[in-house]
Amino acid sequence: MEKFVIGITGASGSIYGLRLIEELLRAGKSVSLLLSDAGRQVLGYETGLQLAAEPQDCLQQLRKYFSAGEELNHYGISDFFAPVASGSSAPDAVVICPCSMGTAGRIAAGLSDNLLERVADVALKEQRKLLVVPRETPFNQIHLENLLRLSQAGAQILPAMPAFYQKPQSVEDLVDFVVGKVLDSLAVEHKLFQRWG
C-alpha cells in the first residue's frame, strides 16, 4: 500500500488538504496527517473542524471525521520519533497542502524545527516526491526565491490555482480541480474534474 504524508500548515486553504486526504483514502492509500500549530488554528477557523492538540485525541477525531481506520495516522508536530521522521521509513510522497510561505522558507533553508519540516527534508534527501502547494498571493521576491530553491532541490511546486475551463458551478468544483491536479502528480486516479478536450 502506498504511503503518503499530508501536511497542513497555517496558510489559508486547509479545505484542499482535507479534500486530498479524503480522496487518497478513497483510493486505498495510507495517509499520515501532520498539522502545524498554525495549520490546526486555520483549519478550525476555516472549516469549523476543531481538532484536539493531543495527538491521540486528534487521531480519533480524524478517523471519525474521515470514517477511516488504521490507514489514517496522525503524529504530533514535535514527535521526531514518528516513523515518517526517518529515511528508513520514508513515505512514497509528501504533500504540503496548503503550504505557508514560512514553511516553504524553512524547508528551502534546510531547517527541520518540527516533524513536518523534517519529513519534507527526508523526502528531498531520499529523492521521494515532495509536492508543495502554496496558497499565498501576491508572492514577494523572497517567496519566489524560496520556491525556486525548493524546485531546484527536487520539489514540485503546485500552486492552488483553479482553472475555469471546466465551468465550475461551486466552491467545491474549484477545490476539486486543485486536488485533482495534486492527485495527477501523485499518479492517483480520480474523477474530480473534466479534462480538457
UniProtKB/TrEMBL annotation:
Domain (Flavoprotein): residue spans on this chain: 3-186
A Pfam match: Flavoprotein
Keywords: Flavoprotein, FMN, Prenyltransferase, Transferase
Listed GO MF terms: carboxy-lyase activity; flavin prenyltransferase activity
InterPro entries from the UniProt entry: Flavin_trans-like, Flavoprotein, UbiX-like
Residues noted as binding dimethylallyl phosphate in the record, renumbered to the chain: Y165, K181
Reaction(s) catalysed (UniProt annotation): dimethylallyl phosphate + FMNH2 = prenylated FMNH2 + phosphate
Record-listed FMN binding positions: G10, A11, S12, S36, S100, M101, G102, T103, R135
Taxonomic superkingdom: Bacteria
Family: Belongs to the UbiX/PAD1 family.
Function statement: Flavin prenyltransferase that catalyzes the synthesis of the prenylated FMN cofactor (prenyl-FMN) for 4-hydroxy-3-polyprenylbenzoic acid decarboxylase UbiD. The prenyltransferase is metal-independent and links a dimethylallyl moiety from dimethylallyl monophosphate (DMAP) to the flavin N5 and C6 atoms of FMN.
Protein name: Flavin prenyltransferase UbiX
Organism from which the protein derives: Malonomonas rubra DSM 5091
